[in-house]
Amino acid sequence: MTAPGPTGHKPAASSSVRKPAVSPSVRKPAVSSSGRKPAVSPSVRVAGRARTRQAVEPFALGGTGEPASKRALRKQGRQTMRKLLDAAMVVFARRGYHAARVDDIVKVARTSHGTFYLYFSNKEDLLRALVSEAAEEVAGLDSVLGPVGPGPEGWQELRTWIDRFSLAWQRYAPVIRAWTDLVMNDSELSDQAHAAASGVSATLVRRIAEAGPPEGIDPVAAAEAVVAMVDRFHYLRQFSGEPVDAQALDTLTTLIHRGLFGAPGTQANTQRKTPRKTRRS
Length: 281
Fold this sequence. Notes:
By secondary structure, the chain is an all-alpha fold. Helix content is about 60%, strand content about 0%.
């Protein structure tokens, strides 16, 4: 130990004694002249998610920070969103809406949770996008039904309309079931349901009125009954495992055509056969 100097103070430490160097990995980031710390790279903050955002952001986010389902998308963004919507319908059909999870949807779509949340806020937001799409397609049926007369041409016109209704129902069946379950507790979904039902029945009301329905038939009530019958017919056939095939749709068309558009039945059904008199020998 070195003895104290004349003034009672210990001598300064030798310049050869140095403090251990600080590893670069634990050094504090340098402070710029403005006093701000440098920004940390997104790839350091969230290693896996940064690459996903970089790949999707140019055509999905657009810098607005809201789900892409509410904004115009570029081609690749539309394709990604379509993949998520189709995957959701598969999952809803398998598990039902309430049991479905975002994790199930991204697995079927073969994408990530980060990508899902770039396009939708949550599962409910995705359902609203599907409901809006289904409502638009169903409402479009209003413009494709021409005049329905009592003859074969009228039957075929009605049959074509029912066929399009059937295709739309079968495509969006999982969405329609979820829509029906939630409509009583969600005003927005209720409004969409009312608009879709009104749209699909508006032209049907006019066609029934034009045909001069039998006395006691109200065209509005009759049109609503037709829409409800077609809807529940599909649901019951699906529930019982029976196909909604051409024969089933032919039967449905004939019931509606004869009941509301004055179509006659077959001669065997409308006219009673008079038995021949036997000659006495």
